[in-house]
Design goal:
276 residues, Rossmann fold, 8-stranded mixed sheet, globular
Length: 276
Amino acid sequence: MNEDQESRVSGDGCTIAFRVDGAEDAPALLLSNALGTNLNMWAPQVAAFAAHFLVIRYDTRGHGQSDAPRNPYTIDQLGRDALAVLDAANVSRAHVCGLSLGGVTAMWLAVNAPLRVAALVLAATAGRIGAREMWETRIEQVLAGGTESIADAVMTRWFTEEFRASSPSLVETYRSMLTSTPRDGYIGCSAALRDADLRHTIERITAPTLVVAGTADAATPPTDGEEIRRRVPGAAMQTLNGSHLINVEQPDAFNRAVLTFIGQQQHPAQARASHG
């Protein structure tokens, strides 16, 4: 597959759009995005990550250029979609970084396909995100008014007040990402989050794991990240100043955290020497 190629892969009748950046002979890094975003959510990471990895981004089922079936989705389906993307990119094993919904998908991969996951970065996520009643209310609201009806409220959860004031055009870019998400896709993935509870299964994760939390993240607060750190054997945790889309609000610190952590897994002897 050529650098910067966009492609599509079909699994269980649903076509998933994905893109690769970087050198084909570099280690692979799969990025899985948040609910209500598309693969462009990772724009602040691509240049930094593609200098070291074959970066694979994809539109989660129901988002971006991927198909949006009109039915509830499951975390099993989202996980199998990610595996199909890896297969289509001819990647047998990848580092995996997921944020929010993407983090839940990443945990599913590490539990159910451990041989495919070299290292794991779980950002702004939880083994169980929100309460079932919250997701039922969200689904009803989007069913009635589309994603536009929740956009302003979501921006207050995605970004701190300070960031919204200092970077209004960037916030508007992500607001447009949300409002362009198909209603059926947003509802389908909300149902997946409503039903997903990986708090106990993640205890079986064997991949080296870094948890990244935002200090001001009300959707998945640092206590959620701390629970993952406790449950995943050997997991490390780093907290950054910001809210839910911490990769956007603190791109340099986020990129540094991910690159440092994965670099330590790829070169453990060098990492030990640097700390010795």
